TrEMBL record:
<protein>
    <submittedName>
        <fullName>YlaN family protein</fullName>
    </submittedName>
</protein>
<dbReference type="InterPro" id="IPR009983">
    <property type="entry name" value="UPF0358"/>
</dbReference>
<dbReference type="InterPro" id="IPR036270">
    <property type="entry name" value="UPF0358_sf"/>
</dbReference>
<dbReference type="Pfam" id="PF07408">
    <property type="entry name" value="DUF1507"/>
</dbReference>
Protein backbone atom coordinates (compact mmCIF):
# COMPACT_ATOMS: atom_id res chain seq x y z
CA UNK A 1 0.00 0.00 0.00
CA UNK A 2 1.43 3.35 -1.01
CA UNK A 3 0.86 6.35 1.23
CA UNK A 4 1.06 9.89 -0.02
CA UNK A 5 2.48 12.53 2.29
CA UNK A 6 1.19 16.03 1.85
CA UNK A 7 3.54 18.97 1.83
CA UNK A 8 1.65 20.59 4.73
CA UNK A 9 2.03 17.48 6.88
CA UNK A 10 5.76 17.26 6.10
CA UNK A 11 6.28 20.93 6.93
CA UNK A 12 4.34 20.53 10.18
CA UNK A 13 6.47 17.54 11.18
CA UNK A 14 9.70 19.40 10.41
CA UNK A 15 8.52 22.51 12.28
CA UNK A 16 7.60 20.34 15.28
CA UNK A 17 11.11 18.86 15.26
CA UNK A 18 12.61 22.36 15.07
CA UNK A 19 10.47 23.43 18.05
CA UNK A 20 11.73 20.44 20.05
CA UNK A 21 15.32 21.55 19.46
CA UNK A 22 14.43 25.13 20.39
CA UNK A 23 12.75 23.86 23.57
CA UNK A 24 15.82 21.80 24.45
CA UNK A 25 17.99 24.91 24.16
CA UNK A 26 15.49 27.12 25.96
CA UNK A 27 15.19 24.72 28.90
CA UNK A 28 18.95 24.63 29.34
CA UNK A 29 19.24 28.40 29.02
CA UNK A 30 17.42 28.75 32.31
CA UNK A 31 19.97 26.50 33.95
CA UNK A 32 22.92 28.26 32.26
CA UNK A 33 24.17 24.88 31.13
CA UNK A 34 24.78 26.33 27.68
CA UNK A 35 27.62 28.47 29.00
CA UNK A 36 29.13 25.78 31.20
CA UNK A 37 28.60 22.39 29.55
CA UNK A 38 30.67 21.34 26.55
CA UNK A 39 28.62 18.16 26.36
CA UNK A 40 25.50 20.25 25.82
CA UNK A 41 27.03 21.80 22.69
CA UNK A 42 27.62 18.30 21.36
CA UNK A 43 23.99 17.39 22.03
CA UNK A 44 22.82 20.48 20.13
CA UNK A 45 25.20 19.74 17.26
CA UNK A 46 23.91 16.16 17.09
CA UNK A 47 20.29 17.32 17.16
CA UNK A 48 20.96 19.90 14.43
CA UNK A 49 22.76 17.34 12.29
CA UNK A 50 19.91 14.87 12.62
CA UNK A 51 17.37 17.57 11.85
CA UNK A 52 19.29 18.70 8.79
CA UNK A 53 19.23 15.10 7.54
CA UNK A 54 15.45 14.96 8.03
CA UNK A 55 15.10 18.16 6.02
CA UNK A 56 17.45 16.82 3.35
CA UNK A 57 15.39 13.62 3.14
CA UNK A 58 12.16 15.60 2.70
CA UNK A 59 13.81 17.62 -0.08
CA UNK A 60 15.10 14.48 -1.83
CA UNK A 61 11.60 13.01 -1.78
CA UNK A 62 10.28 16.25 -3.32
CA UNK A 63 7.98 16.75 -0.35
CA UNK A 64 9.43 20.22 0.22
CA UNK A 65 11.59 22.40 -2.00
CA UNK A 66 15.25 22.99 -1.38
CA UNK A 67 14.56 26.65 -0.58
CA UNK A 68 11.90 25.66 1.98
CA UNK A 69 14.38 23.28 3.59
CA UNK A 70 17.07 25.95 3.72
CA UNK A 71 14.59 28.41 5.24
CA UNK A 72 13.57 25.97 7.99
CA UNK A 73 17.23 25.33 8.87
CA UNK A 74 18.20 29.01 8.65
CA UNK A 75 15.29 30.03 10.89
CA UNK A 76 16.25 27.45 13.51
CA UNK A 77 19.93 28.41 13.38
CA UNK A 78 18.97 32.07 13.76
CA UNK A 79 16.84 31.31 16.84
CA UNK A 80 19.63 29.23 18.35
CA UNK A 81 22.14 32.01 17.71
CA UNK A 82 19.86 34.46 19.53
CA UNK A 83 19.73 32.15 22.53
CA UNK A 84 23.51 31.71 22.55
CA UNK A 85 23.99 35.48 22.23
CA UNK A 86 21.61 36.11 25.12
CA UNK A 87 23.43 33.59 27.33
CA UNK A 88 26.80 35.10 26.39
CA UNK A 89 25.58 38.62 27.21
CA UNK A 90 24.19 37.49 30.58
CA UNK A 91 27.48 35.74 31.31
CA UNK A 92 29.42 38.91 30.41
CA UNK A 93 27.12 41.06 32.58
CA UNK A 94 27.63 38.67 35.48
CA UNK A 95 31.41 38.79 35.06
CA UNK A 96 31.40 42.58 34.96
CA UNK A 97 29.29 42.77 38.12
CA UNK A 98 31.70 40.45 39.94
CA UNK A 99 34.65 42.60 38.87
CA UNK A 100 32.95 45.72 40.26
CA UNK A 101 32.74 44.15 43.74
Amino acid sequence: METEISKDVALDVLKDEAKKIEQLISNQQHHLCIAQCKAFEEVVDTQMYGFSKQVEYAVRLNIITSSEGHKILADLEHKLNLVYSDVYEKQQDGSEKQEER
